[in-house]
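Write out the 3D structure for:
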Amino acid sequence: MKISQPQLDTFAQTNPAIFTEWLIDHVHRFFADCCDELGPETVRLEVHEAIQRAAHHGFVEPLHIARYTDMVFEFGTDFDDDPRFPWAAQILADPALSTPAERMERLHAAALDQVTRDAQLVQPDADSPNATPSASTSTHPER
């Protein structure tokens, strides 16, 4: 089911339970392997915790909450405190980013950069026929 941004905003504001169910479905679609490993109850708990952590950081808009939740499922529950992802804590604490929208835009861009770097680590260099991956990454680190 495709939901437009205005519909999503309405669901989140008028019925948080519908938004939460949409978000659970969303992570199942985009992080299927991770969700299969975690199981339905843990996925539900992770989504609820992600919503709370997003709010703690000032993210209350549905798009911001969804992006934050994506980062939780990509990098792990505590990615915002994880020393492997120092960019997250730095962005969230940056006083120059005065609005949640600015912080999320920067956080989202940094997360995409991290995913790109991680993908490069596990894919051999196309110019080197004997290249081997230098590191193994996971789409759902230890939680």
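The longest helix spans residues 100-122.
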